[in-house]
Amino acid sequence: MKYLTLLAATVSSFTFAADKTAPEKTAPVNTPEALCPWSGTGGTHFCYVDIETGTTPTCSPQIAGQVQVISTQNGAVIEVDTSGYRQMMVGSRIENAQEYSLHIGNSPSNNGWAGDSGHFSNDSEAHLYNSTLYVYGNDHIGNPLLAQEANAVPAQNQPVIWAAVCDGIFRWYSYDPVSQTGSSRDVMDSGLFQIDGNEADSNPNGNDRKLYIGAERTIGSAARTGGDLISAPSGTFNQGIDLQIMLSQ
In the predicted model, what is the mean pLDDT of residues 226-246? Predict the structure, then answer.
């Protein structure tokens, strides 16, 4: 897979974006690799989430008020205000890829399988269902299925998983440290993840600055739950941290 060289060093701890020396091949302009690089777009700040307690035990002061756990029912829902930032990255390790282990959406009502019952027009989303990744566009383009990636999560050995979101871009990466196999997928579309403040939502209470993360559940429904996201192994930098969120300027 094209990112295995870049990310192989992350298998003991799921932090890699802080390492600005990590190589990524030079990409043509206006591609997901160039516009939304795994190394971050600069000025990166971190926030760590403990899913069990619904807390952020460590959070860079620059973004402490922008990352909020808003539900702890059957997992966790995190609201991320991307104001002032161009990119969000989410990293974890997954113990079992069952049903809705990870969900990322542009709307607080996203609950999987496209749309949010018409609550917001900026309602694109990406989620796992078992080991398959699904990525859907927003109302402006009719909520199409933009990507479907089978075996997006390796079947064993508690693989590392990463997602990156920029305006109009979604990127996915997973890696099994034992078999050294994984999956990567880039999706780019004008109807995907609006976070730059230029696409006003049809709902007067909406905006295009916020993203939502469902950890071990969907964002909008606590009844749709999923497998365990787990912390990094004992003795590594991220021990005890179930989910890592980064914002880059």
Answer: 73
Listed by start position, the domains of the chain span 4-15+61-248
Q: How far apart are CA 133 and CA 126, in angstroms?
A: 7
Residue 119 CB neighbour total at 10 angstroms:
18
Topology, domain 4-15+61-248 = Jelly Rolls (2.60.120)
Alpha carbons 174 and 102: distance in angstroms, whole number: 13
pTM attached to this predicted model = 0.88
* Cβ proximity of 91 and 159 under 8 Å: no
Rounded Cα gap, residues 178 and 182, in angstroms: 11
Per-residue pLDDT at 16 exceeds 70: no
pLDDT at 180 over 70: yes
Note the pLDDT of residue 239. 53
Average pLDDT over residues 17-44: 71
What is the model's pLDDT at position 143?
A: 95
Q: Tell me, what's the pLDDT at 206?
A: 76
DSSP the chain: -TTHHHHGGGSSSS--TT-TT-------TTSHHHHS-TT-SSS-EEEEEETTTTEEEEE-TTTTTTEEEEE-TTSEEEEEE-TT-SEEEEEEEES---BSSEEEESSTT--SSS--TTS-S---EEEEETTEEEEE--GGGT--EEEEETT-S-SSS--EEEEEEETTEEEEEEEETTTTEEEEEEEE-TTS---SS-S--SSTT--SSEEEEEESB-SS-TTSBBPPEEPBPTTSTTBT-SEEEEEE-
